[in-house]
Each structure stands twice: as C-alpha cells, then as structure tokens.
Amino acid sequence: MPPTPRPMPSTRKPPPSLATKKQPAQQRATETYERILDVTAQTLADVGIERLSTNLVCERAGLSPPALYRYFPNKYALLSELGRRLMQRQNERVDHWITLEVFSGGVDALEAALEGLILDTYEATVQTMGGVWIMRALRAVPALQQVRLDSHAAVTHEQATLLAKALPGVSAAELVLVSRIVVELIYATVEMIFDEPLDVKAVARTVAGMLSSHLTRIRPTDGRAVGSARATARSR
What we know:
This protein is mainly α and 236 residues long. Helices cover 71% and strands 0% of the residues. The longest helix has 24 residues, at 172-195. The chain is globular.
C-alpha cells in the first residue's frame, strides 16, 4: 500500500496578542501609558488603520520602542485598548436612555429614547479622538472583532434583563434575540452615519421608529406587561 500522506503543516499565523503586558503602577508610568494611547488615537485619525505602526506612534510620542513595548506588544493591542474604551463610552449611554420608565411611557417615549440613544452614541464617537477609525478597526480587523462582540454581548444581556421586567409575558429567548439585534442595528446605524453624507437626526429618527415599532409588537396584548413595568418603575 502506498504510504499515507502526511498532513501539510498549517501556514496560518497565530492571532496577535491583544493583552497589555503590564499595567502602570506609578504616576509617571500612568502618564506614559496614557500618552501612548492618546498619540495612537491621534495617529490613527491622521493616517488610518493600515499605516498605523508602533514605530510611528513612538516617533510621535517621543518614546523609544522598548518604552512602548513595556505595555503594548503590537499595534493591535493598542487598538484593542482604544476599542474597549470607546465601547465603554458608547455603552454608558444605554442606561441613561433605556429604562423601565421609558417602556411604561408608550411607543412615543420609547421612540424618543431610542433616537436619543443613537444620537448620543454618535456624539460619544465624534468626541473620542480617532473614534470613527476605532469603530472601523473593530469591524474590519479580524483580531479585534472579539472586542466588539464581547461588548455587544454584555449590553445584550443587560437589555434582555431589563426587557424581562418590562415585558414579563415574552419568552426569554425572544427578548435575548431582540436585544441582540437592537444593539447591532444601533451600532451599524452609527457606522453608516460616518460612512455616508446623511442627515444624522433623520437617520436616528427613522431607525428609532423601526425599532420601537417592533418592540411594541412583541408586547403582550392583555396589558400585563405595561402594568408590570409601571409598577416596577414606581417601586424603584
């Protein structure tokens, strides 16, 4: 019998490390750490994802490569930390806009809250140095996609928990699915606003109307969800 061919060795490169090597413990180290991230964000805004490099960041920050590599092993670790921080800023807006009181206020209140959330998320991204490029990196760079997905999973869990209180007659599986889709659509809407010359408020209003329409459709028809949401809101 002919010899069994050996499997070809894999040529796929392992994914780059996204973990920081160490966290700064002293004030001077913290200042260096933050300066590296600030310069990275500014450089990303200036040159884009492809041209960003640790050497360019070092040059602009006035640091030697060993000083940067003490904290970040590569440019993907830099982008990962910037992405994590941006997602946190965006996610902080959710709790401000989406509450039990909003669900007890009817479709108009829900639509207004969703519109406000979209606009606020957009503004948080605008106010973040390199924010739009960070968002694009989280979508386009395979090594960074898990940062976005983990953030969306956390928000999905929080919103599904909130919806379970507002809409107790709806199955948990449906609430998780709806929450995940809403999170993704809001994020995609903000990306679209950056990518095309659209009226920001008009886009936010349209998407908010679509989302609130579906959220009200899944509400039980016997009114139990509305009453429960109001009662829970009063007891908070």
